[in-house]
Amino acid sequence: MRRLGILTSGGDCPGVNAVIRGAVLAGEIVHGCGFMGFRDGWRGLLEQDVVPLPRHSVRGISRRGGTILGTSRTNPLSHGGVDRVRAGFRRNGLDGLIAIGGEGTLAAARELCSQGLQVIGVPKTIDNDLGATDYTFGFDSAVQTATEAIDRLRTTGESHHRCMVAEVMGRNAGWIALHAGMAAGAHAILIPEHPVTLDQVAAWVMSAHGRGRAPLVVVAEAFTPTGQAAPYAPRGLDTFGRPRLGGIGRLLEEELQLMTGLETRATVLGHIQRGGEPTAYDRVLATRLGIAAVDAAANGRWGTMVALRGTDIVPVGLEEALGTLKLVPEERYLEAAVLFG
Amino acid sequence: MRRLGILTSGGDCPGVNAVIRGAVLAGEIVHGCGFMGFRDGWRGLLEQDVVPLPRHSVRGISRRGGTILGTSRTNPLSHGGVDRVRAGFRRNGLDGLIAIGGEGTLAAARELCSQGLQVIGVPKTIDNDLGATDYTFGFDSAVQTATEAIDRLRTTGESHHRCMVAEVMGRNAGWIALHAGMAAGAHAILIPEHPVTLDQVAAWVMSAHGRGRAPLVVVAEAFTPTGQAAPYAPRGLDTFGRPRLGGIGRLLEEELQLMTGLETRATVLGHIQRGGEPTAYDRVLATRLGIAAVDAAANGRWGTMVALRGTDIVPVGLEEALGTLKLVPEERYLEAAVLFG
Amino acid sequence: MRRLGILTSGGDCPGVNAVIRGAVLAGEIVHGCGFMGFRDGWRGLLEQDVVPLPRHSVRGISRRGGTILGTSRTNPLSHGGVDRVRAGFRRNGLDGLIAIGGEGTLAAARELCSQGLQVIGVPKTIDNDLGATDYTFGFDSAVQTATEAIDRLRTTGESHHRCMVAEVMGRNAGWIALHAGMAAGAHAILIPEHPVTLDQVAAWVMSAHGRGRAPLVVVAEAFTPTGQAAPYAPRGLDTFGRPRLGGIGRLLEEELQLMTGLETRATVLGHIQRGGEPTAYDRVLATRLGIAAVDAAANGRWGTMVALRGTDIVPVGLEEALGTLKLVPEERYLEAAVLFG
Amino acid sequence: MRRLGILTSGGDCPGVNAVIRGAVLAGEIVHGCGFMGFRDGWRGLLEQDVVPLPRHSVRGISRRGGTILGTSRTNPLSHGGVDRVRAGFRRNGLDGLIAIGGEGTLAAARELCSQGLQVIGVPKTIDNDLGATDYTFGFDSAVQTATEAIDRLRTTGESHHRCMVAEVMGRNAGWIALHAGMAAGAHAILIPEHPVTLDQVAAWVMSAHGRGRAPLVVVAEAFTPTGQAAPYAPRGLDTFGRPRLGGIGRLLEEELQLMTGLETRATVLGHIQRGGEPTAYDRVLATRLGIAAVDAAANGRWGTMVALRGTDIVPVGLEEALGTLKLVPEERYLEAAVLFG
What we know:
The structure is a homotetramer.
Chain A: E1 3-8, H1 16-30, E2 34-38, H2 42-46, E3 50-52, H3 81-91, E4 96-101, H4 103-114, E5 119-123, H5 139-160, E6 163-168, H6 175-184, E7 188-190, H7 198-210, E8 216-220, H8 248-260, E9 264-268, H9 280-298, E10 304-309, E11 312-317, H10 318-321, H11 330-337
Parallel strand pairs in A: 1-2, 1-4, 4-5, 6-8, 6-9, 7-8
Antiparallel strand pairs in A: 2-3, 10-11
Helix pairs in contact in A: 1-9, 5-6, 7-8
Subunit structure (chains A, B, C, D): Homodimer or homotetramer.
EC number (chains A, B, C, D): 2.7.1.11
Active site (chains A, B, C, D): 127
């Protein structure tokens, strides 16, 4: 193994640079292997937009947010497909590719592997909704940022005797809402896996209010109240393909104020959850994933992705890894709901 | 001077508790003077909702966000007026009152003083738009929180080659935008004091893009582009009297994307700017203001507010202090604009 | 089950209050069970220093550092022993006890259980050196605080071309050094499980220096260089039973400066690692442990402690849990050492 | 004015990079003036170790700690002196020099100006002890970092009923101790400007203890108790010219424990106070100073340094600026001491 490629695809996620650094250092130091970086995900591979990644180019980047390689949502399979990727491999003399990305990227990696190309995946989603790994890097940073922001909202709620609503990320799964809500001591956590009626939410709010608390509601962007046709547009449905500002947080603000008579304010935390410095937890996890991805490549474990299981990093077949979203299980939701009172 | 009242009125602001603590400790230790706290601002004084504030009740509160006394927007002059306030003074045996609040509270304090009541004001606005004081407490915390959030947005912008727009607070003045924008290295800072056209904003954005940067725009909520009738509703104009989510940030997101062709994303930082722990700067400033307010009371300087001038805390006549908003002066804006390039 | 006791013993650790809150809320809401808190660990139980813990007493405490119950190092077995504890149970009408503490407390819990008393343990050590649980709460916060501090040291090292040494906690095991060192990108991580010579450390330092870097060394307090009789006193060995300031950090400062000729500075991070707000990760873990401890009590699982296994919280027999320190395994050290270059 | 030089000298200080960025951008954009950077302070000028500083080289650096130019303690006057500096000016075609540094650098700048060279100073000291400016950049960051660390120590003190001692920087003046101590709510603040006896310190400690508090003492490194020949070595006096670990914090730990019988722990915050990201306050102040330094050069105000006065940045003659240390005035100390109780 003499040369590997590496690319980062899909949404920004704290820790991506630590994966790159871990891979490049392990490659050079342990395996004597050089790295080429492709810019803006698969686009760089398809369009031969490539930069060498010697050791000094990854100095000190593990604490930097974002990705030094840039990213895009280009899908390699729909842009000329496997042949162009194969040509990219050949042109750059690659023995294999480390692809850091979400479900789309991992599915593409699987397809490429089935066509004989050598790819290792590194799962990346702040939403933590990928099966086969206990946690994805970036999730801890998103939860920490959301929790700090919600801590701030709480003091305003208490001073003004308001109900505060915080809308956090979570397109399919409520992991960020569950963890940030539990960490911040929310009086209601609303996630798509466990729909409840607005009446139930209002009841939780009034219960907290009745105990003299300023009610705090944490809601995942994809939550829909039972019996409501979504009259709001969740992330991604805007004319321009941009996040709607008038999502579920806004709906709750209006409805809860009407239903409870309490002054209610929503804040949409938005992009601050996915940018910025990773937590130490994510830096360690991401660094280990980067190292493990190169080890997997060196061991010829193509067609796997590296995953966290307990405290170990292990390669997992992409076949097994894909397919099912990891949703918040009922018992985890009920555990958190204990605290709603 | 044996007993003083204290109340906090208007919007939440980091540092309020440090003012309360500074006043109570200085009162008890230096002047042998006890404190009564009124709950939820003037409402507590009008409705006799009052709590004693012995020394131990203010333990460790200077780092806590919000206000332990609660707040409201009750205006004492429009709720039965001066006579009810006077009755409240008498009922509680007050020698004077420390009123912590914004322009409305300080104007009420002036009116009450003109009717013979003894009041000292402590200016409170995160917007920093009050004349007669170099800075108001809470402003530094708001700028720090906004800057950290904008730092996070920047990494997303750079990874995705997007234009990022951050909407910050500032109902009348652009101080938070000016400072947070300068601290975060924004490519355009938009404040109500200095209207520019959307074409100018787009030109700044394209200039940054042309230099290979991910354009970063920081906008105060009250900014209106030149030649635009505001088609958006700034803070406070909603049917429910709540902040609009679809304000200037949203407008810029749509317009800049159309005008520049760059993917553009807006984030409305909202309430996280006014909650949570104060910075050390604000804790020191607020503590000093609390001590100085009691000193002013002990010296019979009724009808003044305490203000920061350079590194000194001085009493300033409320007549002088009120009347003019402190806007961002032209030279400060031009100084920052140097960096837009 | 109508009434449980709860106590916190041993060193301060971020997340203790979240355990207390989780237990009290789960007890009251799910099991209809009241809580008594004993002050300063086992001392409160032996001396009947006890406070009721109704729901409102644990409001908002999960983000507060330290423990609202106080702590001490009192050992119940050496202070009159099992009989006094049994009397304490009877006097307070306890159905069982939740004991939050380190190895000493868990060993005491096991002994008490073997004598017929009903105790559930919650493991607490920032050192993360307890077997039978993937992570202990408090560890993530300690690593985060240490990492942020080391990030600060790095900039000084780079500006002055110095070698910076950071001494972190770790009495028996090098977990904090391993994780904080990996997160901060250290050029050498020194842990007691993997002794190396000073020559090796100096070689790593010179290697980093040779690549134009400011060398960064992270050392666990209990590390002893191979071939060195410890001429320094690790944590706890001072005349007063206090942490020595002149520990391994200081030794490295002197020796590395002499051996490499590079200006070298050591910082002993000390107590800042164990105080202050827990991270969101620790708040979630600690809350879940508190809930699970009460569930274990309700299910009569006396003599167990609650532990993290992957993403699950499970009860583990104290017999199994105690006995072996969880040291950093060789493969984890080698994984990190890849990055030393 | 076509070309300016810039250098950074003396100890690391958060905000230095923001000064560099502000100067380079203002130079290029406003004045059409290029910049040369000298590496490691005056050494780079004397030894012609120089790098061009085009605009893109200062991208995004204002939030980075340390200095991209490196620093040293080289004194230009004692290394061949004015003639070598003059030669450096000529060789690089400099119209003038921006020198960012502490008292030594500013004194050198004054001497160089008196010999006909064109220099503008930018004052830099985290100690805030320089006259003629209200605050120096870096000070706010140091106070914020120290305050956060002391907040952490407090929770340990409260949990263990200990007296906690935090030793902060301050070689001549107690500004960091004063501000961080006030922000953290210390029960005693000890600064060199206001010596007190150990008996007085112990009395403050016992007074806090008597009120049920965990005593918190913040001490500047240069504080000496009245009547004590310093048996400890303050910063800088070590054999190797390095900070002593066994300074005043250590002395207080031992003495207070003996005098009060309370378990006492000292933490020396050390270098973490001067590294890492600047606060927003310092980024704004430093950026403005950088811009103002170039303006001063463009206006031919050689021999001045730029200073903060109220909210304005003004040039001040170096003659006036130097000479007297800015110590904590008696009234500021007494104001803080009110809170000791």
